[in-house]
Design a protein that fits this description.
Blueprint (H helix, E strand, L loop, with lengths): L4 E3 L15 E7 L10 E3 L13 E4 L8 E2 L17 E4 L7 E16 L6 E7 L2 E6 H6 L12 E18 L4 E9 L9 E2 L3 H5 L10
Parallel strand pairs: 1-12
Antiparallel strand pairs: 1-2, 2-10, 3-11, 4-7, 5-6, 6-11, 7-10, 7-11, 8-9, 8-10
Length: 212
């Protein structure tokens, strides 16, 4: 079982000093879906599925429908490995950001991801402030990543306090995700822990974007 964890006192360094919200743990798990219980999942398989979590509302500048795609389109988006269903993409072509508003606070966000790039980021916001987790930080714990999309994984992100908004952002094409899950979940016990400071993260930025 592929299972690595970053303890996020390090990621908290990306928050402003006044913000109490921080990411505490980033974990990967095998498969296309979350293994956490008592969470709600949006799979993007049909237009109606975006509303399948009654506590989550998706929005985007050009409407959310333009972000739900299948297959790959050269220069714009690439199907995540092993995922043969519709998924969410964002970037300059489809538009960015995609915002998820939650009516009930959560400390957990999970998603299956295609290639994570330095220009991808996720912002969490709640009553205790906001913080942005960069693509570099998300990808860092994977270590040197292989080419051709084989770094795809299910990501489980935990925060130290509740958030009510998630913004997915990408300044370049593209940020592809699927099977989003939200909820209040217990933080897992670390199986293996990598204590990566911001300097250590820089050692792992030799990632290559898969061909599109």
């Amino acid at each position: 079982m592929h299972n690595k964890i970053i303890i996020g006192a390090l990621l908290a360094a990306s928050c402003s000093a006044a913000s109490a919200l921080s990411v505490t743990t980033v974990q990967t798990s095998p498969g296309l879906f979350t293994t956490k219980s008592n969470v709600c999942t949006v799979d993007f398989n049909t237009p109606a599925s975006v509303s399948s979590c009654v506590n989550a509302t998706y929005s985007a500048p050009n409407g959310i429908a333009s972000h739900i795609v299948s297959g790959s389109l050269g220069g714009q988006y690439a199907q995540p490995a092993n995922d043969n269903t519709p998924y969410l993409t964002l970037g300059p072509s489809a538009g960015s950001p995609v915002t998820i508003a939650l009516t009930v606070g959560a400390n957990y966000f999970g998603f299956y991801a295609g290639s994570i790039d330095t220009y991808n980021s996720i912002m969490f916001s709640g009553a205790n402030g906001s913080m942005t987790l960069t693509g570099s930080q998300i990808a860092a714990f994977l270590g040197p990543t292989p080419a051709n999309g084989s770094e795809n994984a299910y990501f489980n992100i935990f925060t130290d306090s509740l958030f009510t908004s998630i913004s997915l952002m990408s300044s370049q094409n593209a940020f592809e995700t699927d099977n989003h899950s939200f909820g209040v979940a217990s933080v897992p016990e670390p199986g293996s822990v990598a204590l990566l400071g911001l300097g250590g993260i820089a050692l792992f930025l030799g990632k290559r974007r898969r061909s599109k």
